[in-house]
Amino acid sequence: MTDWEKWHFDLHGYVILRNVVSHSDLKHMVQRCDEWQALADTELPSPMSTAGGYPPGENASRAIINPEFVDPVYADLQLNDEIMRVVLTLTDNSPQHLQCALIQNHRGCTDGGLHNGAEGGMRNPANDYQAADGKIFATFINAGVSLVDVPAGSGFVVVPGSHKSHFAAPDDLTVDSDPPSVVNLPLNAGDCVVFTELLRHGARRWTLDTPRKTVFCRYATSYASWSPGNGPIEEHRDLLSDDLYELKQMAGFQKRKNVVDKLLARRSS
Predict the structure, then answer these.
(1) Helix and strand totals (H; E) in the chain
(2) 117-170: per-residue pLDDT in tens?
(3) Which residues fall within 8 angstroms of residue 161, CB to CB, at 6 or more apart?
(4) At CA 68, angle to CA 119 and CA 79, rounded to 5?
(5) Is the pTM of this model over 0.70?
(6) Per-residue pLDDT tens over the stretch 246-269
(7) Which of 214, 227, 196, 8 is nearest to 112 (CA)?
(8) For 105, which of 9, 39, 109, 142 could close a Cys bridge (C-beta 3.0–4.6 Å)?
């Protein structure tokens, strides 16, 4: 990360990366998203699963989990050079891929309220943020890639600096609150917001006729255990590249993953 990115991330809890996805990949991912979102849960290719609302007329967004197992373009996104440049910095070169979720929001969705990974001001030791000696460190990171243009006044919002707050948020703070407490982040298709899960965030109600489509790539430090199912899905190992399979595995911080060495070598070449 550049010095400016570190400053901005430490101050606000997020950084925006512009144009991390090519036009051709965006077109492909939107097409696959439309295909999958039209399917019932039981019709999705394994090991896909869902969370949220189906059919689309319900008032909850629908998240399709594990698209990286089914489509190579979604798989490549998890190892995107620009995203991983930031993730490597934030994890001190010790990353683990936790999950990919493809989320679609439509005009009727009402489930975008403010939230974070430390509700009520409580901090989980496994979900941490630190900054010292010119370095920043986060143990749970979200990279939200927008597949469509997100105009001002709708879509993603954050409470800047809330990743370092030790106090509960006011009861009257909502996604529609004004700056500086809540800031709306307009995005173009292909842009990515990388943020620590400690940052309070949410989404304003979607007002466009066509849905909002976002891919959330979630990472942690390689030695963190987040759930009993943490790690790659072994019965579907054959659907993953060696690099993505290794990225999904837990590992100690004493030995760097081979995939990290590859990513660092690509940046230095």
Answers:
(1) 6, 12
(2) 755 443 455 578 999 999 999 999 999 999 999 999 999 999 999 999 988 889
(3) 11, 12, 13
(4) 80
(5) yes
(6) 999 998 877 899 999 999 998 887
(7) 214
(8) 109
